[in-house]
Amino acid sequence: MSWEPIDVAAEQPYQVLIGSGVSTLLPQFLEGVERVAIIHPPSLASALPAITSGLDQQVTAIRVPEAEAGKTAEVLEGCWEALAGAGFTRSDAVLGLGGGATTDLAGFVAATWLRGVKYIALPTSLLAMVDAAVGGKTGINLSAGKNLVGAFHEPFTVLGDLDFLETLPPSELRSGLAEVLKCGFIADPAILDEFEADADGALEVGNPVQAKLIRRAVAVKAAVVSADLRERTSSGADIGREALNYGHTLAHAIERREHFQWRHGEAVAVGMVFAAELAHRLDLIDADLVARHRSVLKRVGLPTSYRSGASWIDLRKAMSLDKKSRGSSLRFVLLEGLARPAIQQNPAEGVLADAFLGLNES
Ligand code: GLY
Q: What predicted TM-score, i.e. pTM, was given to this entire model?
């Protein structure tokens, strides 16, 4: 079987492979490696025999708590101790097998062990395949906020095995699809066209339409991070990695106000509709493009309004605290047309509040 690689050409060029069974290629990326640590949550312990069966290396499985509970300094220290116990050297490798939280942690373990060792990502959630595992952002959370400690450490390769999506809870799949559609709005409208042409196929795990959309979204992410790995400060339409934050300014505020009980993609879906309403009020996009946001996100089953939660005043305060806001300015990625993202700073307060009303009107 062959899988067409997607190139990432940042500081250390590497390839992302997406497809059913692609994790069987792992041995070819471990040439010259003596020891391999596989950082994984308990729910993926049953996948280890298949992942390790073709490996000649000495394998250390490091079990970490599920999801964000694993992204702590304490868990990180436990991983370092495990590597020390197994005698890991500079020529050994760390693998991250799991969703975005696990790949963020595993990447940071690899970034920090002996100042950086080979890292291979095996994302198992859609969100991790199309976003977290690609692009070299690694890190952990503090009680003061998410991802406050981290490093850029590019993977040696990313193996996105679509077979893992078979067991993904539907809500997790929907959350990942929000990021896929985001890539359609900011860079590749063919994602939206193909989704609209066969939404049933796009929503079905194992369907070639879904696989194609995932590949297209990864290609968007790969192109963006190739051009701007370290997320320089963008200005207006001269925008780099910050474009990936489309919908995220409000989304981060919602996640914080909802005590991280909302799935990331759900918050991003609401945030994108808000961004579209805001862009429309600033005469940047027409009403049809706003409606297109609602229609594709609703078709996935994602929320497109935010009625029951925090008030606008609370959300507005939470947005000011967002770590993505640089200095004291409030930054939004807004569209100036389909696939034309640009940074808008400090929109007038009245327009922001009105866009929030618009978000909840339909
Ligand atoms: N998830 C946004 C980024 O990778 O920059």
A: 0.96
